[in-house]
Amino acid sequence: MNRCLACGSLLVEPFYNPGPQPLAAFNLPATEEAAKNAQRFPMNFHVCLICGHVFNVDFSVAQVPYGADNNLMYNAGAAWDLHVVSIAVDVAMMATSIRDSRECDGPVTIVDIGAGDGGFLEKLAALLPETDRLIAYEPGTASADCEAKGLETVRDYFIPERDIKTVRPDIMVCRHVFEHLENPQEFAGQLARYSAACGVDARLYVEVPCIDKAIQNHRLEDFLYEHVSNFTWFSLPIMMSTAGWETIDTWTVYNDEVIVWCGYAAHQVFTKHLWSPQQTLTQTRRDLEEAKSYYRPLILWGGTGKSASFINTLRLGVLRVVDSDPAKVGKRVPGTGQLIESSDVLASEGPSNILITTRWRAADIYSEILDKGIPANVVLVVEDSRVVQYTKDMYEQEKA
Length: 400
What we know:
The protein is an alpha/beta fold and about 400 residues long. About 30% of the residues lie in helices and about 20% in strands. The chain folds into 3 domains: about 10-65, no CATH class; about 80-270, 3-Layer(aba) Sandwich (Rossmann fold); about 275-400, NAD(P)-binding Rossmann-like Domain (Rossmann fold, 3-Layer(aba) Sandwich), CATH 3.40.50. The strands form 4 sheets. It has a 7-stranded mixed sheet with strand order 8-7-6-9-10-13-12, with helices on both faces. It starts with 11 loop residues before the first strand and ends with a helix. The model has no long low-confidence stretch (mean pLDDT about 90).
């Protein structure tokens, strides 16, 4: 079953299948015979009904002889050159903003993923201080052109897990690369994931061809085997969002034939609020052992659902269990087997030590304790991994 390469939707349908075609952008035969006998590849484009992304479901990167020829879709037009300069100016302004926001005036590190012949970085270098670090990642033969321009060059693919950790980029530029990737959403996700994992607050700048006009004007020539993905103005930001990026801006350039997107890793913000469940479990178990020793006997309020999860996870299978739901009374706690008693029995017993097992229902349970006149020495809950007393002040605040 085919999933959209941009948003992951299964709502896709056939769009265009002209039959097998030769490579058009990564192969330039030297002879007529070689040209006529060029290997052909399946062109089976489907369209996503959610985001409009058009992609070749029969593409296989393993079948493409990348290497000998680089991308031959060269554009030396004056308008294109102005476009590249404008993008360089945008990235330079972003670099300046990053530099100005720092307490110390340190250099900005910019990596160009799939740098080609280094033309973009060469323009960008002219706009930045010499102290800034610009790195061209280019696995193809054009890496020699990058080196000839005096650029710091890595003759390899950019591998997020390895390179984000070692280079720690402030800005990652990825121009006309995503349309060639077999799994573009996965690569975007790796960039976000390892930025967060390495504590790198990087900005990402993406540029891809825009297929919207080709569809509107019925242009068949825009569909190439090398372009696995054909992005719409809608599908690119959706892909980046689902891959863990927060959009700063999306716009079209070059007569609306190109989409530019920039943003930062949304996962960066989210990871600041992540917690360690294992550390929580260790701390809570330690507190509960102390509570069981100090408050004797300790009675659990709640025996199914989240309460059962609480009891099993924290190994509380030896403690007595009560519940106010008549449908649960007389049944057993799943996994641990305690008999679930009616909470009403506590009203006729001596003062109890009660541990509420579902924090989200604490106010309601405390209210029942008060309404039923259940005498309680103490009512406890787990709050931020610690066992604490549930006070009347907490109750008044939560019921408001």
